[in-house]
Each structure stands twice: as C-alpha cells, then as structure tokens.
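Continuing the series of single-chain predictions for the mutant panel. This is the parent chain; the variants come on the following pages.
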Amino acid sequence: MPSVTIVDHPLVQHKLTLMRRKETPTAEFRRLVREVAMLLGYEITRDLPLATVSVETPLMETEARVLAGKKLCIVTILRAGNGLLDGMLDLLPSARVGHVGIYRDPATLEAVEYYYKVPQDIAERPLIVVDPMLATGNSAVAAIARLKRDGATDLRFACLLAAPEGIAHFHEAHPDVPIFTAAVDRSLDDHGYILPGLGDAGDRIYGTR
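Parent structure:
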C-alpha cells in the first residue's frame, strides 16, 4: 500500500486500543480521538514547505525556518470528522477550516451530500481531509471529488481506522491522495462497518447511541 501511511507510534497505538474498548465512556473517547488526531497531524504535515527568515533572539540575530506559502486548510466530513478537527486545530491553530456534509444512505451505503462550505481559495492551499473511519470509502471519495471540482490539488486524507475495501475504493478514485491512518483493520461486515473496528465513531464521539 504505497500511498497508505500507518502511524504506528506507540502512543497512537495505545490510545487507539483504549478507543476500541466498548466500555470506554463518551468523554474519554472524545478526548482520545482529539489526542490521536494531533499525533496523526505531526506525520501528515512532515513535508510542509519551509522558508528562511531573520529573527532576533534575546542574544543575537539568526536565520530560522517558518512555514512557507498559504496556511493549510482542514476539511472535516460531517459530523464525525469534527472529532478529528479539534485535535488538528490544537496542532495547527491558524489553519482554515472547511466542512463537507455527507451521510451514508443506510440502504445503498452510497454517499449523499447535504452541506458544503470551504474557503474560496482552496485551490491554492494544501488540504487535510479528516473523517474517523475509511470503511466503504464512499464518503471520503465523494468529499475529495467535490473538493477537486473546486480546484484542490494538494490533498491528504486522515482517519483513525481504514478497511482494505475502503482503501481499494479510495485509491481507485483518487490515486494521487495519500492516506494517513492509525491502523488498517481486517474487513467490513455486511452493514459496512469496520471489523474489529471501534463501532460507530460519530455515535461514540457524541454519545448518541
């Protein structure tokens, strides 16, 4: 899987295991998602471009490096993506934010768009698209296709868990977009949920089931 990066840092794996436990309460689950999102963010942003500037330290003037170009944009796939968004913003507080509202039709498992709001200049910005689960891949594929229609070219996708079926679908549609995840699980069940997974991420983040 050349364009899938599994972030296997010990802290990421430990926190993911805590999230998998069915007895983990909502408040702790939400906190863990936020923490893992920030840790994923370090890996995702590893290759952001830098520029050199002059700064005055308390002792002398020196050359130092800062991020170059336009600030990146984090695009969250509603609603569950907002759990990852908060952690990303802890790491990147100046990032712009976009929202794509997509739900999975329970009968067909197809993605249905109901909301879309992103910065007007996304074609000029690097984008990180976030959604906790890459299961069938339908929502992620649809969201990124929508962003590409608005001119986005520099895209990365971040999730907590991915299934092989979702990765295959995603790569078929968007071979140019790298995936960053904490783990690739075994498969999908008959309802399109990741096995062994961690349940419905949105319901567990917001305590709605």
